[in-house]
Amino acid sequence: MERLESFGKLAEWGSSALSIIFRVSTYVWRRIYPYIEITFTEYAGEHLKRSEAYAAIDAYLGDLCRDTAFRIRAMTSNEGGDNVVFSMDDNEEIVVDLDGVKVWWLASKAVPRVTSIYLGRGAPPEDPRYYRLAFHHRHRDFVVGHYISFVLSKGKQIAADQRKNKLYTNKSTIGCHPYELRETLWSHVPFEHRAKFETLAMEENKKRGIVEDLDRFRSNRDYYRKLGKPWKRGYLLYGPPGTGKSTMIAAMANHLDYDIYDLELTSVKDNTDMRKLLIETKDKCIIVIEDVDYMLDLWNRRKKLIEAQIGAGKVKAALVPKVSDEESKVTLPGLLNFIDGLWTSCGGERIIVLTTNNYESLDPALKRRGRMDIHVEMSYCSYEAFKILAKNYLNIDGHQLFRKIKRLLAENEVTPAEVAEALMHKSGDDVDTQEVADRA
Which residues belong to any copy of the AAA+ ATPase domain (predicted)? Predict the structure, then answer.
């Protein structure tokens, strides 16, 4: 027993001695190494969202490294064209002299704590990167109080000057190896659709109301904050195929100068992954879910199948086949939470657009005002819409056949897409009114 007590005291003394040695060594090291280091990681939290500070620093240093760095990463700009984007290569360092105040920027990437074997599809994702800023401790007030703010502001300005609208699509998370989800869940291409409200085939009063609503939404940040509501707006576009729903979305994006996130629900594994997709979207964007009635039909068929197999309680629910791992497990409640749940407050200035070909088949919960604020019927081609198409395609404001076309459009259900196809490659002298009618 005495030996155990002696051993316990020895261990306690050893622990205290190690603590003292650590404190002394830390103090001595700080006296010898008078530099402060600040690390800016690429992802905030559990890889939920790319750090805006990191993105701004990346743009700022990308502009500097062309003239000062020795190892530079170069890639074609995602904005399209032949522009090349530069950034610092791994373990590269550049020195910035700010009127006698020197700071050092180091680019590197995080080393995973646990080595794992990648069994996913395609090339393994890169490890998260980071930038490290080092400076002498006597310049702490200047760097922390002024320089970092300048870097973030300058980087955002550079990124804004280089920015073009993007069209995003979600990567499939069904059957993914967890390692694959360390990268962003969205991929993108430059958004080059030229649709404008001025050329949109729709009645002028309806277009004017939509434009006024969009402008009011964009300028009402303080109003939404005052109400305590997320800064978002919901649009439900409904109508037959070919009535211009996708063109309307493109016109909205171009008018607001927003990015578009095209969310394909059948590629989303479950509600959790759908929430991650929402978190990764940037502010000032339009999130689009097209043909939502198709997904509702899948959910309804799945529900009926389960109910039939349970047989009104005659068969245990445990015996019902589970949804395959290769199928989406997204549910209607999950979609409703995606549209206006708690997580919609993470970010702002977002517009959520749902499209459907069958308005009546939608669940009432999806059509509820406040969730989908504006319902826009994309109808068959009216005479007023035809005149806009004639101006777009033929550059004419009137024609002797317009009266006949007006009567034909009133008697037949013709979509704007069908009218546009009839007018394609024609001139004002050979407008085929019968072709317009035949497309009804």
Answer: 231-382
134/282 Cα distance (integer angstroms):
30
Instruction: Give the whole-angstrom CA distance, residue 161 versus residue 258.
Output: 15
Answering whether pTM is above 0.85, one says no
The token duo for 167 is: 């069209």
* Beta-ladder partners of 233: 351
144-152, long-range: CB within 8 Å, 24+ apart, which pairs? 147/98, 147/101, 147/103, 148/38, 151/56, 151/57, 151/60, 152/53, 152/56, 152/57, 152/60
Report residue 424's pLDDT band, with 50, 70 and 90 as the boundaries: confident
**What tokens were used for 383?**
């005479």
Return the DSSP state at 70. S
**Given pLDDT bands bounded at 50, 70 and 90, which one contains residue 109?**
confident
Mean pLDDT of 227-250: 94
Average pLDDT of the chain to the nearest whole number: 81
Closest CA to 287 of 351, 336, 214: 351
- Nearest one of 89, 60, 45, 62 to 148, comparing CA atoms: 60
Contact present, 281 and 350 (Cβ < 8 Å): yes
CATH architecture of the domain with residue range 169-377: 3-Layer(aba) Sandwich (3.40)
Bridge partner list, 37: 134
